[in-house]
Amino acid sequence: MINVENLHKSFGQVEVLKGIDLEVASGEVVAVIGPSGSGKSTFLRCLNLLETPTGGRIIFEGEVLNAKGANINKLRQKMGMVFQNFNLFPHKTVLENLTLTPMLVKGEKKESAEQRALGLLEKVGLKERAGAYPSQLSGGQKQRVAIARALAMNPDVMLFDEPTSALDPEMVGDVLQVMKDLAREGMTMVVVTHEMGFAREVADRVVFMDKGIVQEEGTPAQVFGSPQNERTQNFLSKVL
Ligand code: ADP
Ligand code: MG
């Protein structure tokens, strides 16, 4: 579904991504782990062109995303993104957060958008908060709304950038559970995370990034059980 070839990204003189290669198959859950500053967020943001790569190719569903003339908006609609800090529309209700973009971008009718939104809110356990504003929700609830909002666009792949990092510990489980359910339903997911338990349990593949490259990748058993790269070993010894 996604094929990343020799992806480079520089900010000015600073090269943050130094040639990333990665394939993500349909239905696969890929966990991206690695130290702070290693380029994980930049990588994820390049995947849906929130950042413009300075080199290499990103092929999504057979189309080169970062080619001139690519229909970026159409392709981006197929990629849901969930951020660390939720990024909900603060002056819209929970329901409106879910219906706004499908109505605006896809021209979906209000009634059907609302019906689908309520279904998604039920799925993340927040149907009864449809009329609330984001400020009235806990962090964990906000993040579950953010996931439902991304799903409201019917994406083919979901990108998560440390979705539980800004949450109080007691909120983390509910959000991870929603993500586990999604994975079980076959959603293709790329998840940058510090939750090693989640990566081990849910991911099909774990990718360890450091210093702007993929240092090591493999199944959770391989990467956590017998890491080959010294940097991976060092990182895991600090976080496990
Ligand atoms: P991670 O998510 O792994 O912590 P990031 O992708 O956020 O890493 O950042 C990698 C490096 O890129 C950091 O040194 C960061 O300061 C730099 N960086 C990220 N975004 C920008 C930007 N917009 N402008 C300049 N430098 C950036
Ligand atoms: Mg980051």
From TrEMBL:
It is a peripheral membrane protein. SMART domains: AAA. Belongs to the ABC transporter superfamily. It is found in: Cell membrane. GO terms for molecular function: ABC-type amino acid transporter activity; ATP binding; ATP hydrolysis activity. This is Amino acid ABC transporter ATP-binding protein. The lineage of its organism: Bacteria, Bacillati, Bacillota, Bacilli, Bacillales. PROSITE patterns: ABC_TRANSPORTER_1, ABC_TRANSPORTER_2. Its main location: membrane. One of its GO terms (cellular component) is plasma membrane. InterPro entries: AAA+_ATPase, ABC_ATPase_HisP-typ, ABC_transporter-like_ATP-bd, ABC_transporter-like_CS, MetN_ABC_transporter-like, P-loop_NTPase. It comes from Macrococcus equipercicus. PANTHER family: AMINO ACID IMPORT ATP-BINDING PROTEIN, GLUTAMATE_ASPARTATE IMPORT ATP-BINDING PROTEIN GLTL. Keywords: Amino-acid transport, ATP-binding, Cell membrane, Membrane, Nucleotide-binding, Transport. Pfam families: ABC_tran (PF00005). Residues 2-236 form the ABC transporter domain.
